[in-house]
Structure formats: structure tokens, C-alpha cells
Amino acid sequence: MKEIDLNLPDSTLLYYPNFYSAEKADELFNELLDGINWKEEQIKVFGKLHWQPRLTAFYANNTKTYSYSSLKMEPNPFFQLYKTSKKILKKLQVLPSPLALPTYTATEKIAMAGTPMMKKS
What total of structural domains would you count in the chain? Predict the structure, then answer.
């Protein structure tokens, strides 16, 4: 399997082109999109609440919360697809993260003031 080191400063980021076939990658993407417990929440910036321009989620293998901009996120337990992905990473001798913060940004946005920026259909 071909490995490309992206040579970023102060980090190690390895890229594996064609790790999955395009068909398998699309299948996994759709499973994640449907399986993640997405939330649409507001954050406080300079004392004012704003809708985040994305859907977010928080998964962890513990019960510790994650907070930023007055938003407190409670962790979801990892679901089966995440568990499978972590096993694959271990086979590659990569240490999987104990948490995940997936985000999903929609391409179509609702432009009305005071309304959420995105909707998941």
C-alpha cells in the first residue's frame, strides 16, 4: 500500500491514496453520514448566539464533555463503523484517537437571518 507523508510542520500526517475503492469509500461515507448523531447547535461569539454553519457530533470512549464558545458537548459512544475503523488503524500500527469530532458542512444554506444555516434531509 502506497504511503505519502504530507510533511506538515510539527505533525505527522500520512495519506494512503486508494486505501478503499471509490465504491467502498462512498459506501463508508454514506454510513457515517447516516450513522452519526448529528446536531445543529448555537455557539456564543462576543456574547451573541449564532448558529454554527455545520452539523457537529462528539464521540468518545469516556464520559468527559467537550466545551467551546459556551457550548458543552456530551460524548456519544462509538458505534460499530467507528469501532471497525479503529481496528483497521491498529492493523496499520496507527494509534486511533480516543475521541472524534466529525463535522458536516452543507453546500446549500438557508440565508434567512436568525434561522439555522443548514438542514439535514
Answer: 1
Do 105 and 53 meet the contact criterion of CB atoms below 8 Å apart? Answer: yes
Q: What is the pLDDT of residue 97?
A: 66
**What is the domain range of residue 80?**
21-104
- List the CATH number of the domain containing 25: 2.60.120.590
Coil, helix or strand for 119? coil
3 in a structural domain: no
Give the pLDDT confidence of 57-66 residue by residue, as tens digits: 888 888 999 8
Using CA atoms, how far apart are residues 12 and 84, in angstroms rounded to an integer?
23
Return the exposure string of 21-44: e unless at least 16 CB atoms fall within 10 Å of the residue's CB, then b: eeeeeeeeeeebeeebebebeeee
